[in-house]
């Protein structure tokens, strides 16, 4: 009961955090991500996180209840960022033709590149529990809730099954990019995604 109360209180106070407190939380998350990359999720302790972030345990417990709590918050933050970054360039209600897309069109790819340390966790066996499903899930939710595709010909591109197929295909291409050490630039990967999209869609509308 005490743990539940503390967690609810933390959630209610989240929006009231000062810029300094937000930076402190990000330092803990960054340290946590680095440690998972180095030694695997199951081998990282709160002590490890505190030492790497160069804070004390009291500061950690001011913001997080325990390792599962920081894990859940990190996962949720990145899940929402994946969805948000995919939407930033588009005006709701406007039809975007695939021919008008260029290599700066997908903010998500640049976001992934800039956060390689986190996305490399998708390649690990001993990683955050459930993480492997998050990338395709976030892309699918985004496509299903926010995007209406305009097909070439009379095909139905807006069924849940097709959007699920698109989500897993996009996630697979991105993870293959990560697996190969991000050798191609974000613009090159974006160009490949655009070329694939142009084979079956003439445009899309953001809801």
UniProtKB/TrEMBL annotation:
Signal peptide: none
InterPro entries with a match to the protein in the record: Homeodomain-like_sf, HTH-type_Tx_Regulator, HTH_TetR, TetR_C_Firmicutes
Keywords (A to Z) from UniProt: DNA-binding
Pfam families attached to this UniProt entry: TetR_C_8, TetR_N
Sequence ranges assigned to domain HTH tetR-type in this UniProt record: 22-82
DNA-binding region(s) from the entry: 45-64
GO MF annotations in UniProt: DNA binding
Gene3D superfamilies to which the protein is assigned, alphabetical: Tetracycline Repressor, domain 2
Protein name per its UniProtKB record: TetR/AcrR family transcriptional regulator
